[in-house]
Amino acid sequence: MRHLLEIDDLGVDELHQVLALSTDPAPPQVLAKRGMALVFEKPSVRTRNSMEMAVFQLGGHPIYIQATEVGMDTRESVEDVTRTLASYHACIGARVFSHATVERMAAQDLVPVVNMLSDVAHPMQALADVLTLSNELADGIPKALAGRSIAYVGDGNNVFRSLALACGMLGVEVRFAGPPGYWLPEMDRDRLSSAGVNFTETDRAVEAVAGVDAVYTDVWTSMGQEDESAQRFIDFEGFRVDEMLMEAAGPQALFLHCLPAHRGEEATDGVMDGPMSRVWPQATNRMHVARGLLAYLLGDCKEVL
Ligand code: CP
Ligand code: NVA
Description:
Blueprint: H1 12-22, E1 35-40, H2 46-57, E2 61-66, H3 67-70, H4 78-86, E3 91-95, H5 99-108, E4 113-115, H6 123-137, E5 149-153, H7 158-169, E6 173-177, H8 186-194, E7 199-202, H9 205-209, E8 214-217, H10 229-235, H11 243-249, E9 254-257, H12 269-272, H13 279-298
Parallel strand pairs: 1-2, 1-3, 3-4, 5-6, 5-8, 6-7, 8-9
The structure holds phosphoric acid mono(formamide)ester (CP) and norvaline.
């Protein structure tokens, strides 16, 4: 049984296969007469809608489930919820506060479990991010991304961790700029380095973005960190992606953001809506990669898993 809890649960060849399936004009109906349970502990616009539409496009039936409704670890255990859902559905997606919850679901090993965002990782977003980079910078050929570069400015969070791993798998140089205290933990740096990712970190945003192909940012305060937002607002001042920072990057630099954006905090309206912004194709690609990933996990490719 294969699960996607973090992007490097896929091998490099598998990542290429998923990206190829994401642009397949005739998606295989791998979910015909089958369901996918989508469990959410946190709100969502893109993830819920892109997953539901992808399931539909693969011939299946998505069921949206609020975690409060099923009462994970309150009404019954995460394990018992998972076993029950697996008896009706071909796949389970979960958006959770604690990464341990998706690990516990996957440990049941009954149907594939897809992490739809945890405090640690957001692999579905990373898939959309690299598909966007491939379309924008490499004529839709992910292998041709090797040697390109991206600078992530802001919080070393779930989105950044998955993005860095995905970019590294495709040979894209990754530069990080954020305030001290918000960098990736040491073990993640070791993970990137043992995966051979060309990775650098700095607290000087202007330096990090110079000459890159794309500048990426995410919110300063992620879901579940709301109590820290006042302090974070102070700590991240100077790491806003504004017109001056994009100018420092150079005229070639695209702008990416996973969304939702806190406009005026981590990115200005001028950048979000500017000529180099690709945030809307990036959001659209969430649906395409959801289709590609599910086609891969549940489809004819499974004998190679
Ligand atoms: N980027 C992303 O995951 O958006 P949602 O939180 O709206 O799903
Ligand atoms: N880092 C953000 C991403 C939202 C898609 C969060 O976890 O809230």
